[in-house]
């Protein structure tokens, strides 16, 4: 069996790492699943790997929760061919989460342009985890949650087709693609919500 491959997304605001393991390749025998292994600390220390989870042959996803900020973690995966033959370890994922809000966009502002339009702008986060590959906007109208908005670039967004005298609240987070490791997407914390009320319509 070939060395496994996987990709991961880290959600800073949830302190959670979501794994997606690729299908096994060149399995000679009956595939028995994957084992997720985790160790804490710098790779220089070479701490022992700890078994985090054993996945069944059909499972490809796993969530690693409660990861502490500013602590280095190293994670890997290995496959099992029954009854007890393990593959080589996957290339380890080494990363260190930031403290909440350090990677959130700054100075988020909402401005009502007219009764039906609101302009949203923000500055880059104070700390970066690589190249920003997109943003996610969470927003509410009169405290009712709306469908999230996903942007591939830019530091602004225009809300249109709004009703007069509605309260719009919004926050935004950045998605990062670090140069190392290449199989990680780091999703920063959301900014503090900003709120604006659209003006009444002009009679």
From TrEMBL:
Stated name of the protein: Fibronectin type-III domain-containing protein
UniProt superkingdom: Eukaryota
Lineage: Eukaryota, Metazoa, Spiralia, Lophotrochozoa, Platyhelminthes
SUPFAM superfamilies: Fibronectin type III
Fibronectin type-III domain: residues covered: 104-201
Signal peptide: none
CDD domains assigned to the protein according to its UniProt record, in alphabetical order: FN3
Pfam family of the protein (one): fn3
């Amino acid at each position: 069996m070939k060395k496994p491959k996987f990709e991961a997304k880290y959600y800073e605001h949830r302190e959670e790492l979501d794994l997606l393991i690729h299908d096994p390749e060149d399995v000679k025998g009956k595939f028995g699943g994957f084992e997720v292994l985790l160790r804490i600390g710098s790779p220089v220390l070479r701490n022992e790997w700890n078994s985090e989870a054993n996945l069944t042959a059909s499972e490809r996803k796993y969530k690693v929760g409660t990861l502490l900020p500013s602590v280095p973690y190293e994670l890997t995966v290995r496959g099992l061919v029954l009854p007890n033959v393990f593959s080589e370890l996957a290339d380890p994922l080494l990363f260190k989460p930031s403290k909440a809000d350090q990677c959130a966009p700054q100075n988020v502002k909402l401005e009502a342009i007219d009764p039906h339009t609101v302009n949203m702008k923000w500055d880059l986060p104070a700390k970066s985890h690589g190249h920003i590959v997109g943003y996610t906007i969470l927003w509410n109208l009169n405290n009712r949650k709306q469908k999230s908005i996903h942007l591939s670039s830019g530091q602004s967004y225009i809300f249109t087709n709004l009703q007069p005298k509605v309260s719009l609240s919004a926050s935004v987070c950045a998605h990062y693609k670090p140069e190392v490791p290449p199989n990680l997407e780091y999703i920063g914390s959301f900014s503090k919500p900003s709120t604006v009320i659209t003006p009444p319509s002009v009679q």
